[in-house]
Amino acid sequence: MALVEVIKYDGTPDVYAWKHPNEELGTWTQLIVNESQEAILYKGGKAFDTFGPGRHTLSTLNIPLLNNIVNIPFGGHSPFAAEIWYVNRISNLDMKWGTTAPIQLQDPKYKIIIPVRAFGQMGIRIEDSRKFLVKLVGTLSQFDQADISRYFRGLLLMNINESISSYLVHKQISILEINAYISEISNHVKEKMMPVFAEFGIEIVNFYMDSVNTPDDDPSVKRLQEALARKAEMDIVGYTYQQERSFDTLEGAAKNEGSTQAGLMGAGLGMGMGFGLGGAFGQGMAGLGRVMDVTGGTGNVQFNHSTSSHSNTQHTCDKCSQPLTPGSKFCAHCGDKYNSCDQCGADNPEGATQCKSCGKAFAKPCRSCGAALQAGVKFCPECGASAVMTCSSCGHAVQPGQKFCPECGQRVTPEGEQ
């Protein structure tokens, strides 16, 4: 051993703890600690003194805790057995993380199972050197970034899986829209992991989620992307899936030369193609069956002139404001029921008492016998039952659709009974 030994460590930034290999130290040993480091002296398996940045001489004068432990029979210059640990306290902001395998989640919007991957980076710093060495490093001679990533991978992936699933379920968003919330998810994951890392003397400086995506080669992802692309194309052109199926049916009938309706269907398609595959053609084809009757035996065409005066008027859905196909019972865009006014044909909300377009009062069924009651009548002309709903608690009149009595607050059942 040299007369004056100098201990210094200039390692790479990814090494967080390093033990000096020589355990035979003299009281004249010089210990050099850099600004971003902290040195801890161990004797007999216990941590004694901590040395900050600077140059330190190991002696019993500046290490008072060694007075009762180190036996110095040679005037204070004999060697003694001890360990010197260097702890790197620099902030490492480039710790990459990622899911080793895709997480299987159900998309709440499209109801299909989709594999999800997440990637990002985080920054950490050793806050408590003694706690870090005692609880995490132990007897290892070196502890680096790869060891931390391996130790905390399970905790990290558990919180990421839980956070992504919570956002999908509670916010009812598609996995394809999750990237709009990665900042919120990153903060949520960081707050949940900080107390766990602090137990081992580690501070989380930052946590970033760079990307949440799906594998492009997964069959379910491919089908979803194809369906969304097809829907976008139909929205741009201006027709729905039901109308597209009608086009395919008409085209198939026109190509079937053995059918008696082939000539008529071919002519209809020819006229339709002349006007383009727009919304007008889809509505015209949907109304073709209502004004034409093709007989199977003779191929004759009979036109039906009994359509209402408002059949050519374009109406929109009361719920989504999309155009309604004439003659349909439900909206092809949102599935809401088409409650048409028999006077103007406008769509009205379920349970409406009068048309929102022309103001005509709707007939309502008798609660006793089901007979149609005109607006304003108080008793059913068929069975004599009262047509006015009243609260059974206070007798106040209750309007159709009200769930609670406006006078006393008593709950009213859909049949008007409490």
Automatic annotation (TrEMBL):
Residues 15-217 form the SPFH domain. Pfam families: Band_7_1 (PF13421), DZR (PF12773). SUPFAM superfamilies: Band 7/SPFH domain. Residues 317-359, 366-409 form the DZANK-type domain. Transmembrane segments: none annotated. This is SPFH domain-containing protein. It comes from Paenibacillus nicotianae.
